[in-house]
Structure prediction request, 509 residues.
Amino acid sequence: MNGRLTRILAPIVLLLLLLAAWELGVRGFNVRAFILPAPSRIALAFISNIQLLGWHGVVTLLEIVVGLLLGAIGGILLAISVFYSPLLDKALYPLIISSQMIPVFAIAPILIVWMGYGLWPKVTVAALISFFPLVVNVSDGLREPTEESVDLFRSLGATRGQIFRKLRWPACLPTLFSGLKVSATLAVVGATIGEWVGAHQGLGYLMLQSNARLRMDLVFAAILMLAILGLSLFGLLRIIERRVVHWRAPRKDVQEV
Amino acid sequence: MSSSLLQVHDLSKHYRQRGINVHVLDRLSFALEGGTWTTILGPSGCGKTTLLKILVGLERADSGTVLVDGAQVPQLGSIAYLPQHDTLLPWRDALGNAILASEIDGRSLKEAKREAIELFEHFGLGGFEFVYPHQLSGGMRQRLALIRTFLAHRPILLLDEPLGALDPLTRATLQTWLLEVWSELRKTVLLVTHDAEEALLLSDRVLVLSERPASLQRDQAVELPRPRDRGSADLVARKTALLDLLLVSGGA
Prediction:
């Protein structure tokens, strides 16, 4: 079969098979809807509540995007400063690593106390969880150019600023985008956690409310909406990545037989 | 002697590597005349790259002086340097790579591009202006890197084994090509190689270095007319003599 066609069809077929098994399982074993709703029921709940989901989805999306932006900018700036200041590197890096051992779940309630129930605690959780991959990836990316490339620039009399702008920054873009894609998925998690801990709007809030009312179909519909948001964001980043890092040699998929 | 474009006097260099003191250069002296091609020939690991880095100003010698046009070096930016391995920027097309030096100098980009396109046309890269390095063959990439070095508009070009990584056929083609470019542009070139034939084919003068610590072992003029025939008896005899010299000093 055609490789491209397989790549598109294979996951769709698998998903359909899983959904069919789910549907049949629920009907066959007579599982009640407040325990596990059938996919058809979730789809119905999704369509009939599309306005509600859309409204809460916009709130959550805003938290995700603002959180990701702040986390990304912070992560990139931190990586650059750590790269250029060995002292800062020694002082900060252990702290940054240690900070990642603290579960965000533990910080979220504190943020609610400090910042209230609005947008900012969720944005902060999303930013905190999404900055780390960028710190790591941008740090690695800035070290990507070989000593000889740096020598070439220095031999031409380039300033440190020129070496950064014309060599290190472009060289770090591929890893930056890899980090950004990981961060985007984390930001979705972060915003949802922020909403679970305390909110009066957003998909996380909708999930908790529906869960409490045993409206399991709506819980799943909210999860579906969240997945759609996350995938769209990921897809958007891939499109931007292809435009920015267009010079990268296409990777051939190597198949092991 | 004071008219020489590059004067190297009594250059010595040590460095410490894993706690061991390595003596790399030992009171090395030579001078380059403007518009000539000089090749430094030496056994692998004899300190050729260290010498180039000192000349360019990337590293400092322990003692000795380097004068470019009578002025004290190291002054970064006064000599064009082509490092040994591929240093093309993958995110720039061929033209963008070629004009790098002009960009760093803050010269007019329009002018630099016009000039680069002319050189591309003239030296067999015409039509490849907007192609990215990963789409070029090894030989093409090296041509581009050399054009970039010529376009730096520095009085002296230092080339660190620019053809070392190429297969023999591409290498022979590029030697001819390089000679053509040089004959037209008449820059002062200092080439580093460990290939005696390449040294004799291209240069006006061959400086033979000894094993580490490198000192000047022989300063040999090559007064044969160009283009030279690599099969001619004279060239083969000279090559044999150079190899003998290298073998004695290399001790391997």
